[in-house]
């Protein structure tokens, strides 16, 4: 059922969402567009009168991403999009939310396609979702390198996760993602070394990188990431010594196992919050 309160909004939003190939049950009012369905994939509530076109452009990008990944069953459920809430651990399937907290704009802010067994490469169109805060492509069959357009995601807070895929090539630079708080690349297929510009990500609280391919590399430069609480660099072919500065961080968890580290272990006796090492 479609109820149209604003013909302009319907012309802009309905065709864009129709590209997703889903069976939709919508309610479109003059001031609020509610997108609903019995299953979960895309959810949001937007000001259709002023922002239908803008949202439609981002949904068009999502449609292209879906087509390239072979995802055709887009289904919609209601979410008021009043604030950004990280996806809870253990939630799978498809979740895409938008942020409509601003009176002027709506943006797609959350994308979670965990456990869909997608094939192929990450589409370059992902870079069009410049307001994305959370991205999870965990447990698929994605291959190749991340597109250069990935650097457009300057607002990304959580890259959680690209793990359990079959990527290849070097780990990408995350220099442009200055807002990033969580970086999780476990068993992703990438090659080391961990880029030195990770030291520019001053907001990082969690790094989880494991099972990198390639030769040995030095311990990544993390001296500026003083907000770190969790650090996992397991089986990353890291050689050399463990940096002394880590003992001054407020780490709660640290795993540096299965590397080529040598020398003395720094004194962590003053690390009162460290529970697992």
TrEMBL record:
<protein>
    <recommendedName>
        <fullName>Leucine-rich repeat-containing N-terminal plant-type domain-containing protein</fullName>
    </recommendedName>
</protein>
<keyword id="KW-0325">Glycoprotein</keyword>
<dbReference type="InterPro" id="IPR051824">
    <property type="entry name" value="LRR_Rcpt-Like_S/T_Kinase"/>
</dbReference>
<keyword id="KW-0732">Signal</keyword>
<keyword id="KW-0433">Leucine-rich repeat</keyword>
<dbReference type="Pfam" id="PF00560">
    <property type="entry name" value="LRR_1"/>
</dbReference>
<dbReference type="InterPro" id="IPR001611">
    <property type="entry name" value="Leu-rich_rpt"/>
</dbReference>
<dbReference type="InterPro" id="IPR032675">
    <property type="entry name" value="LRR_dom_sf"/>
</dbReference>
<keyword id="KW-0472">Membrane</keyword>
<keyword id="KW-0677">Repeat</keyword>
<dbReference type="GO" id="GO:0016020">
    <property type="term" value="C:membrane"/>
</dbReference>
